[in-house]
Write a structure and sequence with these properties.
This protein is α/β, with parallel strands linked by helices. It has two domains: 47 residues; 238 residues, 4-Layer Sandwich (Purple Acid Phosphatase, chain A, domain 2), CATH 3.60.21. It is 32% helix and 24% strand. The chain is built from eight helices and 16 strands. A six-stranded mixed β-sheet has the order 1-16-2-3-4-5, with helices on one face. A six-stranded mixed β-sheet has the order 6-7-8-9-15-14, covered by helices on one side. It has a two-stranded antiparallel ribbon with strand order 10-11. α7 runs parallel beside α8.
């Protein structure tokens, strides 16, 4: 955890400590404190059950006109309540749909997600592998299934050019780490900097490498926003990053480059259910910067 992250954590810890101090020493009511903590815990679970739309707007001089994209990841063959409804309603006028990996869970009996693709309909969907899909013994059949229902992005199939967008994708690093690193170097040499370059990739922790490659926008998942989050503090742990993860959820910006990290779209439990962490579908509105 870097200095900035330690500082943010310290501020949040102070706020939480002030809450405890106020109840115990000011109001001198341990019963009140216990009641409030129980209420906070119960609300945290119920708050996280219903899916949400997260809408962001990105402007660039490289974009011509207006476009709409839908992005989600970590569907895990088990979408949260409302996820498919949001995808269906937002797909009607979407130009792109991005599936950021772990759409299929490694423990699911069947890799097919026909309901999802029925929801998407005829819209152009782009897909990359996540770590859970890589673990499956039927991986080759899964890849063929997604090829029949979407555009499966790899170094060999990238980029896909649509209007002034070039769309790239890489398999999860667990497929082949050397090929993963080589793909980023290869993309760096291939990028047309007059285009708006998008990278679809499963993990956020290689953010600096993605920026170095020159992408305008990177779409990632995997972290689940920590899955269970504490009020005032946020994620305690995230896969691939360990304790107090640097990348949790939302938009990360450096100069004119951005990475959006989604909190995921599944209701799958990891030891505990989601806690203060709504599953989401991300709506990205691309606009020309005048």
């Amino acid at each position: 955890m870097n200095f900035k992250m330690r500082k943010i954590f310290l501020y949040k810890f102070i706020l939480f400590s002030a809450f405890i101090f106020t109840n115990v020493f000011v109001f001198k009511s341990m019963k009140l404190l216990v009641f409030e903590l129980v209420a906070i815990i119960i609300y945290g679970f119920f708050y996280s059950k219903k899916a949400k739309r997260t809408v962001i707007e990105l402007k660039s001089k490289k974009i011509r006109g207006k476009y709409k994209a839908i992005f989600f990841a970590d569907y895990h063959s088990n979408p949260a309540d409302g996820i498919n409804d949001i995808i269906k309603s937002e797909s009607e006028d979407a130009d792109f749909i991005f599936l950021g990996g772990d759409i299929v869970d490694d423990k699911a009996e069947n890799f097919k997600v026909d309901e999802l693709f029925s929801t998407i309909g005829e819209k152009r969907a782009f897909y990359v592998l996540g770590n859970h899909e890589v673990r499956r013994k039927d991986l080759s059949d899964l890849i063929n299934y997604f090829k029949n229902n979407s555009t499966y992005l790899t170094r060999k199939t990238s980029p896909i050019s649509i209007s002034n967008f070039d769309i790239y994708g890489i398999d999860d690093v667990t497929v082949n780490e050397n090929d993963f690193n080589y793909s980023l170097l290869y993309f760096k040499e291939q990028l047309d900097m007059k285009k708006f370059n998008i990278l679809l990739v499963h993990r956020p922790e290689y953010f600096e490498k993605y920026l170095e490659a020159g992408f305008d926008l990177v779409l990632t998942g995997h972290a689940h926003a920590g899955h269970a989050r504490l009020p005032f503090i946020g994620a305690i742990v995230a896969p691939g990053q360990g304790l107090f993860p640097r990348y949790q959820k939302g938009l990360y910006t450096k100069g004119e480059q951005n990475m959006f990290l989604t909190s995921g779209s599944s209701k799958k439990k990891y030891l505990v259910p989601r806690f203060y962490n709504k599953p989401e579908v991300v709506i990205i509105n691309f606009m020309e910067e005048l």
